[in-house]
Amino acid sequence: MIKSFVQKKLTFREIDPEKGLRAAMDLSPEAVIDCISDSGLKGRGGAGFPTGAKWKFCRAAKGEQKYVVCNADEGEPGTFKDRVILTRFPHLVFAGMTIAARAVGATRGIVYLRGEYTYLLGGLKKALQERRDDGRLGPAVLGGDQEFDIEIRMGSGAYVCGEETALIESLEGHRGESRNRPPFTADTGMNADPTVVNNVETFAWAACILDKGPDWFRVVGTDHSVGFKLFSVSGDIDRPGVYELPLGTTVQELLEAVGGENAKAVVIGGAAGRCVGQGEFDRKVCYEDVPTGGAVIVFGPGRDMLEVAENFLEFMCEESCGQCTPCRVGNPKLLECVRMLKDGNCSASYLREIVALGESIHAASKCGLGQSSGNVFLSIVEHFREEIMGRAVGSV
Amino acid sequence: MVLLTERDRLRQSLAELAERYGKQRSSLLPILQEIQRQHYHISDYAMQVVADLLGIHPVEVFAVVSFYSFLDFKPKGRFIIRVCRTMCCHMQGKDRVARQLETDLGIGFGETTPDGRFTLEWANCIGMCDLGPALLVNDRVYTQVTPNEVHHIIEECRKVFGVHATQGQEV
């Protein structure tokens, strides 16, 4: 058994997934979209695109067949909340997908589950069968005029497939190489048909919102980031696990909640996120300040930040799909620089060149992976210059 | 002659797979995943047959196999042990677990034991960051692994082979 610590007070525990689904089936598709738009829900995978707008585009797009795809390719280092949601609340996710199907007029749903989570497959298939058996999925959902069924497709160990266009490529049977946008998946997605792609957590919140109403969701948060969000917190803390906190929570408040008050740095958003140093712990975790898909990794006073940068860059070099040059060639140069710093061989002027290269990778890469691949390294160079410069050979 | 019948058998089972998943391009990954599960790798011959069945060029199939880290064109062991090497597991002591695995199996990372039973590999974040160090043995997840437990994990796998197990790769 995999027993992750999960905070006791959790909205998902208190919600009946079927109430939201019933409410959606009684509403017109437009009213469902309005409900989600009014709530202010934004993508919980990290990019933060307004969910209601995405659904609206997909509804307006022309296509014989529309798809609802659940992105369960949770690959960001430090995030595991989707695993917990899929283990404990699969019906909430499936209800959310069915609500999305109602909203956009889709008849086919696909869960793209990462290969590492193959052990979840049995439980998810059982939950889907239960839903088919009592009419919550099938040719007439809840006896109405909505047809919808969900199948599960497995990933095969590629981080980049969490990017929505790469995910679609993978579903179509290709290498997981991201596409140029536009066109967006909402009108040209799976098999060039309109497709809604949302994160596991987004669908779960959508089901909650349909039950409780948009105003219920808006009570917490900031101007641009409303509602609660699940955080996967790990690293040098007393209680690693999954926490539900309002968006706009400061880093300091988050650290107090998880028992990590003596932290020296926090990486928020995983390998694609950024490193926040002690002086910035008053910053807010939300889309307009420090955005995240939920990954929070805490580093205690004894950690070497160069080791952190090295590990995450190794990850990016390995997981880059290789189709565009800045990411494929640039990231190994950043990694090489980290190793030079470790050996004390990196001059200040070379470091300046490499920081400029990091910014070029950000500007010139095609997809989110390349655009964010140097973030952790760049923010460590920014905040920990004293620590990373002037290393003696073989120190630390 | 033996080789020929094995190929016939493979071709037949692949045709059945294509029948089950459909012959459209989007079936390619599910078919390849199934071949990988049954044969622990996807041979050149299997790639050619799949390409013929789906009406695509075999290079297209190779491009897909070589892209995904859970699909292999070289033979792998019956059990693939993947140790998470990403930061959280690293901080929780993955190096010692990895070292013990290398010593107990007598191979390094990226290698397969000569009897074809175990392959040792690194994995990038497997989503067990709160419960590290973590590893995968095929589809099974092991969390909070200690160096001392490594031996038990390997023994658990070895039981599958039983006392009369024969040497060599299962085809």
Instruction: Indicate the percent of residues in helices of chain A.
Output: 40-55%
Taking all residues together, what is the mean pLDDT of chain A?
95
Uncertain spans of chain A = none
Query: Which homologous superfamily in CATH is the superfamily of the largest domain in chain A?
Result: NADH-ubiquinone oxidoreductase 51kDa subunit
What fraction strand of chain A?
5-15%
At a glance:
The complex is a heterodimer of chains A (396) and B (171). Chain A is α/β, with parallel strands linked by helices and 396 residues long. Chain A has three domains: 11-217, Rossmann fold, CATH 3.40.50.11540; 228-299, Ubiquitin-like (UB roll) (Roll), CATH 3.10.20; 305-389, NADH-ubiquinone oxidoreductase 51kDa subunit, iron-sulphur binding domain (de novo design (two linked rop proteins)), CATH 1.20.1440.
Supply database-style keywords.
heterodimer, A: 396 residues, alpha/beta, Rossmann fold, Ubiquitin-like (UB roll), de novo design (two linked rop proteins), five-stranded mixed beta sheet, four-stranded parallel beta sheet, 17 helices, 11 strands, 44% helix, B: Arc Repressor Mutant, subunit A, Glutaredoxin, 2 domains, 7 helices, 46% helix, 11% strand
Notes on the protein architecture:
The complex is a heterodimer of chains A (396) and B (171). Chain A has helices at residues 11-14, 17-26, 29-39, 51-60, 81-88, 90-104, 121-133, 164-171, 200-212, 214-218, 251-258, 305-319, 325-342, 348-364, 368-372, 375-383, 385-388; strands at 67-72, 108-113, 149-154, 195-199, 228-235, 241-246, 249-250, 265-268, 274-277, 284-285, 295-299. Chain A is an alpha/beta fold and 396 residues long. Chain A has three domains: 11-217, Rossmann fold (3-Layer(aba) Sandwich), CATH 3.40.50.11540; 228-299, Ubiquitin-like (UB roll) (Roll); 305-389, NADH-ubiquinone oxidoreductase 51kDa subunit, iron-sulphur binding domain (de novo design (two linked rop proteins), Up-down Bundle), CATH 1.20.1440.230. In chain A, the strands form three sheets. In chain A, strands 6-5-11-8-9 form a five-stranded mixed β-sheet. In chain B, 46% of the residues lie in helices and 11% in strands. Chain B has helices at residues 2-21, 28-39, 44-54, 58-67, 87-91, 94-105, 150-158; strands at 79-84, 118-123, 135-137, 140-142. Chain B has a four-stranded mixed β-sheet, with helices on one face. In chain B, a hairpin with a 2-residue loop joins strand 3 and strand 4 (140-142). The longest helix of chain B has 20 residues, at 2-21. The model of chain B has no long low-confidence stretch (mean pLDDT 93). At the A-B interface, strand 5 and helix 12 of A face helix 2, helix 4 and helix 5 of B.
